[in-house]
Design goal:
This protein is α/β, with parallel strands linked by helices. The protein has one domain: TIM Barrel (Alpha-Beta Barrel). The strands form three sheets. It has an eight-stranded parallel beta barrel, surrounded by five helices. It has a two-stranded antiparallel ribbon with strand order 1-2. Strands 6-7 form a two-stranded parallel sheet.
């Protein structure tokens, strides 16, 4: 049955989204350098909850200081961060939106100038100037993801999303090209996916059955193989008590890059899986009201909105009012973006994207 954008969505854990719109987790570089919440980050996220997103997800929030991936990143690696997160979770939920934090570690993608030391990786990686984690450090990484989830629950979030996509540390473990370990966390796919599964299972055990738990995966780039990622996706559904999967496709309407799998679209490769009671969302160039409906018609449970959520804080309300809604054209002015709740650092960050911000 085709889902409508305004229909509520119930997760296995009991949490309910009032509609089918999720704010995609987006880098915005506007919190404090110690990882604590800034007013600009608070305003950006709570404004999206007010604008009608049924689930408002934070930016990637790092679970270890060494896992910081960008300046001004919101952290969740210390109890000192709980106060800010409590304020943020309450601010999001005040507008009837589910508050979810994305748990993240950049691994080899932590820039030296950001962390002031060598980045860490499953294996030594010269290109990224990264050193290999010891087995003890892998176990600590697992425990720190779980500890971050416990902090998040204490702060009042409805749930967490474990970031296993986009070439960050859990992707690095999943990748046969990057992960060259010869212990229990390297080699076979079952070994390379072990850390992700241990983190997910540990969070479920620590936070209980009513805490919303999701995982983000991406099937391409950084040595990811589509067949392996669909296998990991199905295993998460079958054995690991998650509530939702967030599949980042870069472009939800594209063909796989691997010619071997171009018999159907990337989206169709995932829609063919048996999701059972697990809900799923996709991200990647869902920009108009028509795009939203097209994705829901493909069997996806809810949509993750990035760029259009930057351009319109109330994108869900606009689409629900007008199914043919199209976002404003680019470029847009700094004044326009500030009116949409972006702080100065976020506006500066958006200037990295060619043609987004007017000169």
């Amino acid at each position: 049955m085709t889902q409508q954008p305004d229909s509520p969505l119930q997760f296995t854990c009991g949490a309910q989204m009032p509609n089918r719109f999720m704010l995609a987790p987006m880098t915005n570089t506007q919190s404090h350098e110690d990882g604590s919440l800034s007013n600009d980050e608070y305003d950006w996220l709570t404004m999206r909850a007010k604008g009608g997103f049924g689930l408002t997800m934070t930016c990637a929030s790092h679970v270890q200081a060494i896992g910081k991936g960008f300046p001004g990143q919101l952290g969740i690696f210390s109890d000192d961060h709980i106060e800010g997160h409590t304020r943020l979770a309450n601010g999001i939920k005040a507008h009837g939106s589910l508050a979810v934090i994305q748990l993240h570690h950049a691994g080899m993608r932590s820039p030296f100038e950001v962390i002031n030391e060598k980045a860490v990786c499953p294996s030594e990686h010269d290109k990224y100037n990264a050193r290999a984690l010891s087995l003890e450090e892998v176990h600590q990484l697992r425990d720190d993801f779980i500890a971050a989830a416990i902090r998040s629950q204490k702060a009042g979030y409805d749930g967490v999303e474990v970031h296993g996509a986009h070439g960050y540390i859990l992707t690095q473990f999943l990748s046969s090209k990057i992960n060259l370990r010869n212990d229990d966390y390297g080699g076979s796919l079952s070994n390379r996916s072990r850390l992700l599964f241990e983190i997910v299972d540990g969070i479920r055990t620590a936070c209980g059955p009513t805490f919303l738990l999701g995982v983000r995966l991406s099937p391409e780039r950084f040595g990811m193989q589509l067949q392996e990622i669909t296998t990991v996706t199905q295993q998460l559904i079958d054995h690991h008590h998650i509530d939702f999967l967030d599949i980042s496709l870069w472009d939800v309407f594209k063909q796989p890059e691997d010619s071997e799998h171009q018999n159907r679209s990337l989206l169709e490769h995932f829609s063919a899986l048996d999701f059972k009671t697990v809900k799923w969302t996709v991200a990647g160039k869902i920009r108009t009201g028509a795009d939203v409906q097209k994705v829901l018609d493909a069997g996806v449970d809810f949509v993750s909105i990035g760029r259009s959520a930057i351009l319109h804080y109330d994108f869900p309300k606009q689409v629900l009012k007008n199914p043919d809604f199209k976002p404003t054209g680019l470029p847009v002015s700094e004044t326009y973006l500030k009116a949409q709740g972006l702080g100065p650092d976020f506006v500066t960050y958006m200037k990295r994207w060619d043609g987004f911000v007017a000169e």
